[in-house]
């Protein structure tokens, strides 16, 4: 009886309480609760992007902070990541729904040695939502795989993601390989991931560092515009 009284009915919470509860549920890796929370917020008229940023990404930030501080460990973080992905899977079709003509094509992947893919997936979704075609190479991507996909797909943009300070230098390996093959300037190279910054992006020879998925979309759009203008001139 006492247990029943303690049970939280997500749909009975107001928006603020529900988002707070979702942060807790994400922290605890409760996949089904996250899926339910996402659905409730959507039913209440929340825009998919708002659900994504306020309920999921903000919740993951708390997980990340406690992981950094040694309060959470890999197994718990994996559960949280799975719950986050389940929420993202509901949002994905809504974010990518677009009748717009294709803006361009992007090849994206997390670099060699790195298995973090939530941020990369999010960027892919948002790019698709903005009308780009996205070829996702997944995690642990080698230079050769990026280059082969760029050429095969006749892509416009290369997107690379890295979440570890030990894997981010690999982005330079990829760009240097493109340079040595004389194809660097054929593509727009965008990089992102939590440990990067603008200075790093410049230092490795990328066209731009993108702080988050929304910035990646805006940056990609503006580079594509420039590209088209140059092609027309
Ligand atoms: Co990892 N991990 N992890 N981890 N993990 C971090 C990155 C860490 C910062 C945690 C910490 O200490 N606070 C730390 C790195 C420290 C460092 O390098 N200085 C760390 C570590 C150490 C590790 C392991 C080494 C732990 C271990 O085994 N001892 C290990 C590494 C494994 C490997 O890759 N070889 C590891 C493993 C894992 C899990 C498997 C448990 C899991 C990943 C699950 C998965 O992705 N499928 C995991 C997670 C979840 C994290 C944290 C908690 C969250 C990352 C995340 O998904 N964030 C992370 C802590 C943190 O980042 N604060 C951490 C949410 C996501 C939406 O944000 O990925 O930043 P983010 O993406 C953003 C932007 O960065 C940007 O846009 C996105 C959306 O706005 N962006 C791009 C990202 N990529 C882009 C590409 C672009 C543009 C923008 O291209 C154009």
Helical residue percent band: 55-70%
Count the E strands: 5
Radius of gyration equals 19 Å
Number of helical elements: 10
Sequence of secondary-structure elements = HHHHHEHEHEHEHEH
**Ions, cofactors, ligands: which are bound?**
CO-5-methoxybenzimidazolylcobamide
Average pLDDT across residues? Answer: 93
- Give the structural class: alpha/beta
Question: How far do the termini sit from each other?
Answer: 75 Å
Q: Can you list the strand order of the major beta sheet?
A: 2-1-3-4-5
Strand content: 5-15%
Contiguous uncertain segments of 5+ residues:
none
Specify the biggest β-sheet.
5 strands, parallel
> Per the principal axes of the C-alpha atoms, what is the gross shape?
globular
Q: How would you sum up this structure in a few lines?
A:
This protein has 233 residues and is α/β, with parallel strands linked by helices.
């Amino acid at each position: 009886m006492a247990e029943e009284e303690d049970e939280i009915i997500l749909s009975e919470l107001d928006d603020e309480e529900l988002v707070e509860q979702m942060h807790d549920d994400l922290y605890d890796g409760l996949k089904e609760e996250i899926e339910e929370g996402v659905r409730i917020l959507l039913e209440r008229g929340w825009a998919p992007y708002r659900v994504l940023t306020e309920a999921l990404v903000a919740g993951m930030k708390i997980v990340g902070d406690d992981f950094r501080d040694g309060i959470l460990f890999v197994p718990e973080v994996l559960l949280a990541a799975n719950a986050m992905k389940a929420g993202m899977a509901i949002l994905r079709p809504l974010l990518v729904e677009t009748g717009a003509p294709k803006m361009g094509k992007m090849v994206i992947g997390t670099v060699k040695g790195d298995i973090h893919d939530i941020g990369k997936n999010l960027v892919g979704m948002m790019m698709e939502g903005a009308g780009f075609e996205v070829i996702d190479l997944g995690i642990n991507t080698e230079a050769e795989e990026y280059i082969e996909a760029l050429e095969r797909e006749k892509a416009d943009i290369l997107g690379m993601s890295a979440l570890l300070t030990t894997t981010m230098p690999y982005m330079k390996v990829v760009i240097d390989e493109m340079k040595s093959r004389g194809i660097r300037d054929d593509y727009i190279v965008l990089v992102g991931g939590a440990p990067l910054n603008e200075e790093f992006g410049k230092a490795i020879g990328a066209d731009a560092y993108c702080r988050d998925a929304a910035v990646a979309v805006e940056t990609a759009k503006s580079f594509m515009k420039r590209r088209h203008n140059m092609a027309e001139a």
